[in-house]
Design goal:
Elements: E1 4-5, H1 17-26, H2 37-54, E2 61-65, H3 68-79, E3 83-88, H4 91-102, E4 106-111, E5 128-132, E6 134-135, E7 140-141, H5 144-153, E8 158-162, E9 179-183, E10 195-199, H6 201-213, H7 223-230, H8 241-257, H9 259-279, E11 284-285, E12 298-303, H10 308-316, E13 319-320, E14 322-323, E15 332-336, H11 343-354
Parallel strand pairs: 1-13, 3-4, 3-5, 5-8, 8-9
Antiparallel strand pairs: 2-10, 6-7, 9-10, 11-12, 12-15, 14-15
Bound molecules: pyridoxal-5'-phosphate.
Pyridoxal-5'-phosphate is lined by residues 9, 67-69, 92, 132, 134, 136, 162, 164-165, 183, 195.
Length: 355
């Protein structure tokens, strides 16, 4: 039976991925040199497509990394000399914080399970405020307006946003964000193996200034190196050429659908599934109490009596949902609601959940 993956990443592939992979093979994309003109065209097209699709300002830079986790390390390593501040709603926010600790930064962490937790003052000495816009482990989100208001409140601090499991759905004002990073195996419906970071001119400047002073120790993916190669539409290393190619192709396909239509479909499916969980409160619970903080792209529900039997039953019908994360593994399910998913997928899921 053909399975439909509702797992939160890797997840269901975008429908056109197999055709693009075949085309890449036919066109010898996978044997191209990463110093060739043909590769530079691919690099340039993917960056340009991403910028127009996500409304990223011209002056912002797009660099390729290997993963979302690398994004956490690079933003701290490149832009923070001493201290970062972290709003944390689950395991990925904790990982972001731990990354800063691992890089020997002074840190402070604020748990944000209520909307007004985001009003907690950020210490004056913190150089950066870090958000996990969509917390895949717990199904919380940091609403875009919360991030925008922090940017306004702390104009001198850098704002870093993990958008690994919310792009391209989430509508961010990149003019107010210094670094945003993601990987492609979640909302873009692609195989894993590529990270992307969007860097503001100000963040780049900060990184280059720290590098000059010798305060940030990194080389291979320092912003200076990333910039040097990106200016030639290249990467320092031999990159995941197939992934860079596929990302550009998938964005063009998503553009044909339209980001407004993708966002509306995502909102509608999320609303229907949350309503279903609410209407079946004998069997399901919603751990994120405030609807404003509920993720639209990775939905989490508690399952009365434990989630394992339900996950097994769904799997028998070809519907693969995620287990809960960490200590909630046996108690919750997680359901991805990415652009690759269709209304029909969700209809089949909700019928299966009803029985
Ligand atoms: C998956 C995920 C990551 C880690 O991304 P990788 O590409 O697996 O390194 C980071 N943050 C969030 C919110 C995620 O969902």
């Amino acid at each position: 039976m053909k399975k439909t993956f509702f797992t939160v990443g890797p997840s269901k592939l975008y429908s056109t991925v197999p055709a693009h992979i075949r085309r890449a093979l036919e066109d010898d994309i996978l044997s191209l040199s990463h110093r060739s003109q043909a590769f530079q065209e691919i690099f340039k097209n993917t960056v340009a497509s991403l910028k127009t699709f996500c409304n990223i300002p011209d002056g912002h830079h797009v660099f390729f990394l290997t993963s979302g986790s690398e994004g956490m390390e690079r933003v701290i390593q490149n832009c923070v000399s001493e201290e970062s501040f972290h709003f944390v709603q689950g395991a990925f926010g904790e990982k972001f914080h731990r990354t800063a600790v691992g890089l020997k930064k002074k840190t402070a962490l604020q748990s944000a399970k209520n909307k007004n937790d985001f009003d907690t003052p950020v210490p004056q000495t913190a150089e950066a405020v870090c958000f996990t816009q969509n917390e895949t482990s717990t199904g919380y989100q940091a609403p875009p307006e919360v991030i925008a208001s922090a940017a306004k409140r702390y104009p001198e601090k850098l704002v870093f946003v993990d958008v690994v499991s919310s792009l391209p759905y989430v509508d961010l004002d990149y003019r107010a964000i210094d670094c945003a990073f993601f990987s492609i195996q979640k909302g873009f419906g692609l195989p894993a193996g590529l990270g992307v970071i969007v860097v503001s001119p100000r963040a780049l400047e900060r990184a280059l200034a720290l590098e000059k002073k010798g305060l940030n120790v990194s080389w291979y993916h320092s912003f200076g190196q990333l910039l040097k190669y990106a200016e030639r539409n290249q990467t320092n290393e031999t990159p995941n050429i197939m992934a860079i190619y596929l990302l550009g192709k998938i964005i063009e396909d998503m553009k044909a659908v339209g980001l407004a239509a993708i966002r509306k479909a995502t909102d509608d499916r999320a609303r229907r599934l949350y309503r279903f969980f609410e209407e079946n409160s004998d069997r399901f619970s919603l751990p994120v109490v405030d609807p404003v903080l509920r993720s639209r792209t990775t939905l989490v529900a508690g399952v009365t009596g434990g989630s394992a039997p339900l996950i097994t039953k769904l799997k028998e019908q070809g519907l693969v949902v995620g287990a809960g994360y960490g200590t909630e593994k046996e108690n919750q399910i997680r359901v991805a609601n990415f652009p690759a998913h269709t209304d029909d997928d969700f209809e089949r899921l909700s019928v299966a959940l009803q029985n």
